Every structure is written in C-alpha cells, then in structure tokens.
Amino acid sequence: MEKAKKRIGILTSGGDAPGMNAAVRAVVRSALYHGMEVYGIRDGFVGLKSDDVSPLDAGSVGDIIHRGGTILGTARLPEFATDENVRQECYATLKKHRIDGLVVCGGDGSFRGANVLQHESGVNAIGLPGTIDNDLAYTDYTIGFDTAINTCMENINKLRDTMASHGRVSVVEVMGRDCGDLAVYAGIAAGSDAILLPEMRWNDQKWLRYIVTKLSQSFGRGKKYGIIVMAEGIHMQPGMGHFTVDYIASWLNHNQGSVGHKVDARGSVIGHVQRGGSPSSADRILAARMGECAVDALREGKSNLCVGIRNNKIITVDITKAVSMKKKVSKHLISLADILSH
Ligand code: F6P
Fold it and tell me: Fewest Cβ atoms closer than 10 Å to its Cβ: which of 25, 128, 225, 323?
C-alpha cells in the first residue's frame, strides 16, 4: 500500500508583515517540491478553530511574492492561550485534515501558541518570525522589518521636505510596540536629530531635556528644521500615556526659549501604513530562506523550533527558549545615531 504523503499546514498570525506572502509561497513550493501536501489555514488560529482550511497547490501561491499583507488572512485569538475548549477545537481541525506538521508565521504571541499546540496536540510546529517590530531576541531580523524601515524612511523623507521648506520640527511616531528597533533603524536611515526609545526608560522631563539638547545642537550648526523620531512604546509605558508626538510638539512650541531658536513643531503618526506595501528584496529573500528551513525541519520530524537569522546564517532555536529571551536594542546603534546627529 502506498504510504500517505506527509501533510503540513501553514497559517499567518498576529499583526501582518510585508513578506508573509513570500514566506507562504516559500513554504508551499518547498514542501510540494519534497513531495508533501500543504493546507492553508485562514486567519491564523481563528481558522483552525472554525475549520477554515483548504489545500494549496503551486499555482495558488503564484503572483503573491510582491504583495504586502497575507493572502491567508491573519487575526489574534487570545482565547487560544486561556480556553482549553478553544484549543481542543483547533486540534480537532488538525486531526480531521490529517495535518501532522504546522508552520506558524507571526510574532511572539503566535510562537507561544505554536509552543502550546505542539505540546498538547503532538503536531510538529515550526515558527517563522513575521513581524515589523523586530522584537524577537533570538533572530537578528524578522520578516517585514526591512520593508517597514523603508516605509518609515520614505515617510520621514517626505516630512523632511515640508519641514525644511517651512523651517519646522517634525515629531514623528513609528510602531514597534515595546521594541525600539524600528525607531532606531528608521531614525538613522532618515538622518533624524533625535531618536526616542522605550528601552531607555526615561521619564518625560528627561526626554524633553534630551530633545532640547539635540535640537539646540542642530540649530547651532545652522540647520533650519528638525526631525525627532519616537517609538510608540514610549507612550505605552506606565505614566507616559500623555507623552505623544502632539504633546511634545506643543511643549516645544510653548518652550521656544529652551531651544534658543524659533520652533514651529508638528506631530505625525505614521501608523498602519508601516505594515503594508510590497516587501523589499531583503524581506523576500529572508522569507524564502526561512520558509525553506521550516519545511526542512518538518521533513526531518523536528518540532517546537523557530527559524531565525544570525550573522546571515539561517538558524533554528527552540521556541520555548526563543520566547523567553529578552530583546535588547543595539547600544552601538543608539550611540551611532547620537554621534551622527551631533
Ligand atoms: O506587532 C505589530 C504592530 O504593528 C505593532 O507595531 C503595533 O503596536 C501593533 O501591531 C498594532 O496592532 P493593531 O493592528 O492591532 O492596531
């Protein structure tokens, strides 16, 4: 009797990220190449719960490599962590479709879900890091981060045009949740005067003094406008809810004397455009390399691993270990940003 083909599932979960489609394509095409069957699960763990599952062939992932978002859809299902019945419904779907391996593309919440799933259901699970936040400590880069940096940079370039024309100061917020990577990379790429990172854990007064110092330096060397990049994680911190880009801009406008120069500041939030757009070549290639690695791991019967990249080498790390690692923003990049904006 012919042996049943190995059958794997793939889902995308959490906030979408450019390059998720390239990752889905890489997983599907690599798996099919190696004689496996692949099922796509819609809307992350929500589709597992509701049995929204269908087979994917090579053609079904054609014409998606350049598209932002995720063709599979995505969602957050917090009940997966808290409700045993919800999890059992998800496992029943995997069993019904005879799925014995699962690729989960998402952030740390999705990885925690994959971890529990493989322990309780016995289905091998492999995580692919898909998030613009770059907040997973075990990997140098996540899929979507490079594109999001470029989106921030392009938006800040545009702000720079109008700030320079009017001699204004732009205080601009970027995403990243409690991780400052997007802010520091985008801030350096956009040549900002100051970058505000949640990892510093400063209070509002300290941040205002820092902004004043940096703007005074820039105006002092003849610059006529300013760009301040703030990570959203700062105003997500306890007691810092008021410290928004509009608050900072208004404070600067009312405290011109402290900068020693006329200041006309405006606040801008780049927002969800950071999650969209055609993935950069770096994200597409990262997704291709990581997707192939996930399939190889499942072919070898491995489980509870997440795929990452360290020093340009694709690696796998135990998910339990990966989600417990604490992400740190690069001290070198922080000091470099400070030096270059001097
Ligand atoms: O995790 C990705 C991310 O875009 C964060 O940077 C941001 O804080 C969050 O998702 C926004 O989530 P939502 O799409 O639910 O508004």
Answer: 323
